[in-house]
């Protein structure tokens, strides 16, 4: 038998490669697992950015390393070889720089400690829904921490409303105006943002212990900052916790209020012989306007805030209000122990 012409061998090789490539096309995007245990999809080498970057300057070690990523049906000696390609992790959102977060113009004014201004606490977020009569109602509270995320309680993230409202003062008004020294000082119109994703802590326990009662709400679109809408700062583990706190929300008349409070001891909060963990703290309300204390004056998820040198920090998220010995207490989830969880669940 004579030797086959080289042109025939080339044609046969091309035909086989094309057939093999068609088979590869059918099986591309199959689920696979890398040698590192990461989940991925079978893709052609040129369609996997991670692999392409490795082969930009290939070495023997890199080639041997990538052999383990070949999909089972793929032959590295043939064109169109497929590898198990993992998707790059989503880009993390950036916590606002401390040069910009936690500032409010109301700190420039001499305001009554019991009253709020329309520009006060511009990070305060109302989690909203429609009631049976079609009216807008506040179901939970939260705090803006980036231009896409609101931090709230896990309970509120699990049983959230439909949208988040920012820049609100009086819920019944579309536009709020404020008079300062007998003159009309400023007006503002609130903004509504649909909730794209709710992320409660995976190990939330909303029972008596209320452990891990924290959650995130991702907004459908980015927020544009203004005097009325801006993020609060998140605390640092090295910063000293202030004794004086404030919380804010909307009362029964749907008007924004603020309540001063102080950090309570475990004994004050729970009684003799009981102790809170580092994942749960407690504040005691000071008198609400008019000298009347109300333990349920605001909603779940309200921020526990402290100011240091006119810059505000979110120290906790409230999740339980109750009365004890004539005083009102609010248990809250402190932020510092959950900083890693918060940062790891933010996307840009």
Automatic annotation (TrEMBL):
Molecular-function GO term, any one: serine-type endopeptidase activity
Domain annotation Clip: ranges: 31-85
Protein family: Belongs to the peptidase S1 family. CLIP subfamily.
PROSITE patterns in UniProt: CLIP (PS51888), TRYPSIN_DOM (PS50240)
Protein's recorded name: Uncharacterized protein
InterPro entries given in the database record: CLIP, CLIP_Serine_Protease, CLIP_sf, Peptidase_S1_PA, Peptidase_S1_PA_chymotrypsin, Trypsin_dom
Domain Peptidase S1: 110-347
Keywords: Disulfide bond, Glycoprotein, Hydrolase, Protease, Serine protease, Signal
GO BP annotations, alphabetical order: proteolysis
Keyword Hydrolase (UniProt): yes
Keyword Protease: yes
SMART domains given in the database record: CLIP, Tryp_SPc
Signal peptide segment: 1-21
SUPFAM superfamilies the record matches: Trypsin-like serine proteases
Pfam family, one: CLIP
């Amino acid at each position: 038998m004579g030797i086959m012409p080289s042109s025939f061998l080339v044609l046969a090789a091309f035909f086989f490669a094309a057939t093999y490539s068609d088979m590869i096309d059918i099986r591309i995007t199959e689920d696979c697992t890398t040698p590192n245990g990461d989940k991925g999809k079978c893709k052609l080498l040129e369609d996997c950015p991670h692999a392409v970057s490795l082969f930009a300057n290939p070495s023997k070690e890199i080639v041997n390393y990538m052999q383990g990523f070949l999909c089972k049906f793929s032959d590295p000696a043939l064109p169109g070889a497929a590898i198990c390609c993992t998707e790059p992790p989503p880009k993390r959102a950036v916590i606002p720089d401390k040069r910009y977060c936690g500032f409010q113009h109301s700190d420039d004014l001499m305001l009554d400690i019991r009253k709020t201004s329309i520009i006060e606490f511009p990070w305060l977020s109302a989690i909203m829904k429609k009631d049976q009569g079609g009216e807008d109602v506040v179901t939970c509270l939260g705090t803006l921490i980036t231009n896409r995320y609101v931090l709230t309680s896990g309970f509120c993230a699990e049983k959230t409303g439909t949208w988040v409202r920012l820049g609100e003062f009086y819920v019944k008004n579309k536009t709020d105006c404020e008079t300062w020294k007998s003159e009309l000082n400023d007006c503002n119109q609130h903004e509504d943002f649909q909730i794209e994703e709710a992320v409660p802590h995976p190990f939330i326990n909303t029972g008596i212990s209320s452990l891990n009662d924290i959650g995130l709400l991702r907004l459908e679109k980015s927020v544009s900052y203004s005097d009325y809408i801006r993020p609060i700062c998140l605390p640092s583990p090295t910063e000293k916790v202030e004794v004086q706190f404030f919380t804010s929300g909307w009362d029964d008349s749907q008007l924004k209020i603020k309540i001063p409070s102080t950090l309570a001891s475990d004994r004050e909060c729970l009684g003799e012989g009981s102790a809170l963990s580092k994942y749960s703290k407690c504040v005691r309300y000071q008198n609400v306007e008019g000298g009347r204390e109300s333990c349920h004056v605001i909603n779940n998820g309200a921020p526990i805030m402290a100011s240091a040198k006119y810059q505000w920090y979110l120290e906790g998220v409230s999740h339980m209000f109750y009365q004890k010995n004539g005083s009102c207490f609010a248990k809250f989830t402190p932020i510092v122990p959950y900083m890693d969880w918060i940062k790891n669940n933010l996307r840009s």
